[in-house]
Amino acid sequence: MKPTDAVLAVTYRCNARCVMCDIWKSNSSQSAALEPRDYARLPTSLKNINISGGEPFLRNDLPEVVEVITKRCPNARLVFSTNGLSPALVKKSLPKVLKVNPEVSIRFSVDGIGKIHQEMRGIEGAFDRVMSSLNIALDLGVKDAGLSYTATNTNLDQLLAIYYLTQQKKVNFTFCGVAHNSEIEGYFTQGNKEINDLELLGQQLNYLVKKHLQTWDPNLLARAYYEYGIYFREVYKKRPLYCGAADVLFYMDPFGNIFSCNIANKLMGNIVDSDFEIIWKSTEADNSRIFAKKCPHQCWMICTVSPYLKKRPIIPLLWILVNKIKLALGKEVIEVSNSRAIV
Ligand code: SF4
Ligand code: SF4
């Protein structure tokens, strides 16, 4: 099976000082990243590419990178994950990016309203900065802009506030997931803790899941299942669905190293040293697939879950059907009184 989804960290440099991530402390952020031309080595089978970092807008040659990726993978949807902390950089680079690919989507990370976002991101005025960047993107005509929220014990009570903000701004909302730890050196921190107030998480997710289940929009229905999965994973410490790492998706760091995902340290090869096809058929890739089936991390993040929702839609579809009926009968989807999720 050829991969359909990839997360590409185009740089480990970052202008944030987030509490849930160590990238900005890492020496690897200083190493030379891939040249734009190297992205022509990506597989043409990709349909969804998440361009992240670090902070992707810190790359001066970002429009060139996007141009190469767009030419190489013309059928791929490109989604930027950005902290939006530098409106000036967004204003400078985004028009050039849109010139080479007018269809790009953008998600700005926002973890709370006002001071709480500043506390999470460690940058003065963080909330106002990211709102300015969002407005710039909307003024430039980005068709699919949105806010992306990551939960920790510090900002858990902000989930619905960010959701309401997206409704007010008429932009998309993404619950990225609970902050995870990554084994990959120089990437996310190792210090993220599990959510300790499951009741608060469950109450907020129950509201969101019900909202999304009440529609017939396939994307929002898939969201409902994904959001339910966040709660399921926190309660039972396991995913409600298999993992597709090294099967339909991979993660590539700024230096061309190909990993099965961005959490487990399963290196499969380097795109500069080897053709992607050889990496994908290697023993390391086979071992990563076997590992993913019994992976101890059992992570649940939008970037690693959504590819498998598309590949194995039966379980999510059944869940949607059952829970639409439950809603019609006036029942709750997530019952929080005893901190247990009900399928
Ligand atoms: S979470 Fe994102 S914005 Fe924050 S330090 Fe890490 S890469 Fe930078
Ligand atoms: S469950 Fe394991 S292999 Fe799968 S994406 Fe998460 S960390 Fe990677």
What's the count of strands?
11
Count of runs of 4 or more consecutive helical residues: 11
| Physical arrangement of strands within the biggest beta sheet | 6-5-4-3-2-1-7-8-9
Main beta-sheet strand count, sense and barrel state? 9 strands, mixed
Overall mean confidence score, pLDDT: 92
Small-molecule binders here are: iron/sulfur cluster
Q: Structural class, from secondary structure content?
A: alpha/beta
The fraction of residues in strands falls at 5-15%
Query: Tell me, what's the shape?
Result: globular
Word description of this protein:
This protein is an alpha/beta fold and 343 residues long. It has a domain at 5-193 and 244-294: TIM Barrel (Alpha-Beta Barrel), CATH 3.20.20.70. It is built from eleven helices and eleven strands. It has a nine-stranded mixed sheet with strand order 6-5-4-3-2-1-7-8-9, sandwiched between helices. A two-stranded antiparallel ribbon has the order 10-11. β10 (334-335) and β11 (340-341) form a beta hairpin. α6 (198-213) packs antiparallel against α7. The chain is globular and about 55 Å long. The protein starts with a strand and ends with a strand. One iron/sulfur cluster is lined by residues 243, 245, 260-261, 263-264, 292, 295, 297-299, 304.
